[in-house]
Design a protein that fits this description.
mainly alpha, elongated
């Protein structure tokens, strides 16, 4: 079940599997997804609610242009660059 959930496109569990598999390996990532599924099922049954998928971009989050620029600037600063950003004049 965890293997199928991790192969489902654009879902929370596939994003979790990809994120963990890059660091820990595919087997451990699948086991972690299985654990997350069990926790989710237990929570749904105990609260008697319906499942709502958090989405594939849950871990990265939808970012606006300002947030993307800030993240890139911080990465460049960590690499040792000095960054000065100016916005272009609106035409």
């Amino acid at each position: 079940m965890a293997g199928g959930a991790s192969r489902t496109r654009r879902s929370y569990y596939s994003a979790q599997h990809r994120r963990l598999a890059s660091r820990r390996g595919a087997r451990r990532a699948t086991l972690a997804v299985a654990h997350s599924l069990l926790v989710t099922v237990h929570s749904l049954l105990s609260r008697q609610t319906s499942y709502v998928d958090l989405g594939a971009d849950y871990f990265t989050g939808p970012r606006g242009p300002d947030q993307q620029a800030e993240k890139i600037i911080q990465k460049l600063k960590r690499l040792g660059y000095e960054v000065q950003v100016t916005r272009p004049e609106a035409a």
